[in-house]
Give the backbone structure.
Amino acid sequence: MDDHPLVREWLTNLVNQQPDLEVCGEAENAPEARREIAALQPQVAVVDIALKDSSGIELIKDLKQSCPNVAVLVLSMHEESHYAERALRAGAKGYIMKRETTRKVIGAIRKVLEGKLYISESIAAALAAQFVSGKTLLSGSPVEQLSDRELEVFELLGQGRGTRQIAAALRVSVKTIQAYCARIKEKLNVASATELLREAVRWHESAHKG
């Protein structure tokens, strides 16, 4: 699922061109995705991290509980070094960047269909090193201290959204978002809302580089 019609059309056409693959449904937001996946029970669900109404990470967590037999592959414009580990912890079986070739995208889908994990060589090496060092991919970055929901709020701040807009998008109260922002400031050791916004914009730009 993806909230961009052109991306969904491209992916649908790409998959349907394969003799052994077929798209059985698509969705542009998380609630629709949950309904479609529950009804259709596909073997693989291709999910983006950035959605209009919610976080792809939260959707992955939900699908792991409600549809455990559906393997989730993340196809995202977000840098894998920022989000791949979180996606895998949430229950995804693979992570691939949108800038990869169509051959690699199809290869990732097939690998997940086989019950295997799909990640890039660089992320695989980083995860292997993690077992040796005991550190996560983002160890050393204060952002790693953020919970998935806090990171979601941080990312939306980086997109230039205000507190009320974020509250509406996540369907929570403004006070809840303010509480998240307070915790984020504490974890990132920033003193003001202006500094928090500056850090959020910097993070957003780094997550979408290239």
Notes: Residues 104 and 164 are 39 Å apart (CA to CA). The first strand starts at residue 44 and ends at 47. The chain has a mean pLDDT of 86. The first helix runs from residue 5 to 16.
